[in-house]
Amino acid sequence: MPVLDLGLIFRTSPIDPDLIRGKSQPLFPSGVAEGYWLKQASMSPYAGSMYHGSPLLLSLLGPLTVQRIKGQPSHLFCSLVFVIADILSAMLLRGIGHKLQMAYGLNARLLGLLKSPRDKEGILPSGDIAALVYLWNPFTIVCCVGLSTSPIENMAVILALNGAVTRRVPLAAFGLVMATHLSLYPAILTIPVIFLLGYGLDAPPLKLFLQTRNVESDNRSSTSSASKQAKLKPTAHLPFLWRTVVHFVFWVLVWSLCVLVLCGLSLSKHGGLEEMFKRTYGFILSIEDLSPNIGVFWYFFAEVFDFFRSFFLIVFHVNILFMLLPLAIRLKHRPCFLAFIYLAISSLLKSYPSVGDSALYLSLWALFVNELAVDMKFSFFLFCGYLGVSLLSPVMHNLWIWRGTGNANFYFGNAIGYACFQIVFVVESVSAMLNHDRALKKCNPNHQEVKN
Q: Which residues span the membrane (predicted)?
């Protein structure tokens, strides 16, 4: 049986930092500034090597990179926009948390778990906690200081979830379309948003409510078994609001058409929509830029030979899709939590991750503090891991890129550790939520198996 020689797939020579350091450094504070300068010079904003974002975002932020107040830094206006975006995101998160907290209290009351006012006082304000976690998260602050566009992308994602939670269909569709347009990966949120609009907010499995109703019907009267089954029949399946979902699909098509028309007009003299798709989505999927980041793709594809590159591109990207369906089937009764899991997985497996992705899914995790606070077993371990990786990443980057005293393996080892902590965090969160649902079944005083 032949043995696969990894030397035929991966280059054995280490990455040369000079190749990365030797890339042309533009005289601009950010990629947005470079793209806007090229556009003002009647060139394609994608003619350079730094900007690969939305032309609409370029039209919004580009003018702010050249406007300045006397005696103040040129990026002051951009920083102000990012701060406003983070504040709006925190307010939207607080609204989502308030709705989820009300649903949590209502479901607990229906299941007979809240018998006294003291039990109700034990419900934590998840919306306030999520907003504070997002605003005071060091990752969020770093994104603002580093002039990353992550705050705007995160705001679009949170806007989509807020619209779905509050049943504002046009708002949910607009947020999803804009989030997908800005960074592609939020397209997977279509599944949890449809569940939110079709089934409603997060709740324990329907079987628990069926068992409770069965016990209540047995206690009220001793009617025949046929009449009992008739009473349970209307609630045997969770009603799905197809009309709302169709309304959502309609608005998604409307907003998508508007975005495409605006992008086409913006790039009418520079290749049109074909150029945009090639330089944005194509850039994300083909992983052309191998500059170091907190992900693992850059090192892997810098080492792999070009002959195997297409194969591993397909494998890496399909990994995300393989996880969508099983998680959707198992967690369809908790669509907001499903959205959090999807975002955490995509931040782990996306081509160009940033710390802004972690800031987003960590704040969404705080929305479920009532369900997960007790069952998370490795909270302290994960906290120390995230803290250690956050401190080591800039140190390793400085040693390798700027001082030249380290090598790629130092920085990549830190990225691998970060990926491992994210995997443990996702697995722990899913396990804790499933354990919480099992605990509800055991603690339900009206628990009784549904009779056939």
A: 76-96, 139-161, 173-199, 248-268, 280-301, 307-329, 336-352, 381-403, 415-434
